[in-house]
Write a structure and sequence with these properties.
This protein is of the alpha/beta class. Helices cover 33% and strands 13% of the residues. A hairpin with a 4-residue loop joins strand 7 and strand 8. It binds iron/sulfur cluster (SF4).
Length: 259
């Protein structure tokens, strides 16, 4: 297995990987659990797992609980989760023995309404996501070296180029997506095989679940994420968007941080 060499960049307070591209090629041929084991071993306490309690996250949480259960698992608490999502969080905590870290904007919904007007998600969902998700994430990841997410190429056109390992140029750390090449069917197969709990809303037509105001059920045959910000052109909350507007940058990042 190749080792990741991190090289300090004196001009910016971050570390850049010198050899992501060969690692990425190698990871394309490995099982997700091996990729995850590599990440958890390489970065130890400096890697964190992100979840919004979707099916892919459940798979990763189960794998992490088997490999390195003390890994920090965090979620972005927007105060707008469905009660069913919070019930799943509690069930997963008990079942897998994971301790969740709640990452919050520090902005209550009342404060947000006072500063930006009521129901900001209806008028300016990008700003709402930035306040409640993107900026809190950035602050939380500032002292980490790597993060793990459950995004997959088959979820939406915006995620089709997802790399298994890449440099997150928005948050300045390594990003690991061990399930990038999994299909929705593989995810559910794993869940059934291991008898893992999932959000009961999936049975009511919600394949992808985010905040209550921005999630609706989908009709049969609609894409997995069609119920997110339905009726708008928005496809991503922004936490996976890179400064160039793509979801994932190409993994070749030069040592000096330029491409
Ligand atoms: S998903 Fe909707 S409610 Fe949640 S942070 Fe984004 S715009 Fe706001």
């Amino acid at each position: 297995m190749n080792h990741l060499t991190l090289v300090e960049n004196k001009q910016r307070p971050s570390w850049f990987p010198a050899n992501l591209a060969p690692l990425n090629r190698r990871f394309e041929n490995l099982p997700a659990s091996d990729v995850l084991r590599w990440g958890l071993t390489t970065f130890a306490d400096d890697i964190v797992l992100s979840t919004a309690f979707g099916p892919s996250g459940v798979v990763l949480m189960h794998m992490v609980s088997q490999i390195r259960p003390k890994t920090a698992v965090f979620y972005l608490q927007t105060n707008l989760f469905f009660p069913e999502t919070l019930a799943l969080r509690d069930e997963l905590s008990e079942r897998l023995g994971l301790q969740f870290t709640e990452v919050h904007s520090g902005l209550s919904l009342n404060e947000q309404a006072h500063q930006f007007g009521a129901a900001l998600w209806q008028r300016n969902p990008d700003l709402c996501c930035r306040l409640r998700k993107v900026e809190p994430l950035r602050r939380y990841l500032a002292d980490k070296k790597a993060w793990i997410t459950g995004i997959r190429r088959d979820q939406s056109p915006t995620r089709r180029q997802t790399q298994i390992i890449s440099w997150d140029n928005a948050n300045h750390l390594v990003k690991l997506c061990p399930l990038a090449d999994w299909t929705q069917e593989q995810v559910w197969e794993y869940i059934h095989q291991h008898n893992l709990p999932t959000n009961i809303l999936h049975e009511e037509g919600y394949p992808s679940i985010g905040c209550m105001p921005c999630t609706r059920p989908v009709a049969s045959g609609e894409p997995e994420r069609a119920g997110r910000w339905a009726g708008t052109e928005k496809l991503e909350c922004g936490i996976h968007i890179q400064p160039d507007g793509t979801v994932v940058r190409v993994s070749q990042v030069a040592v000096n941080g330029s491409r």
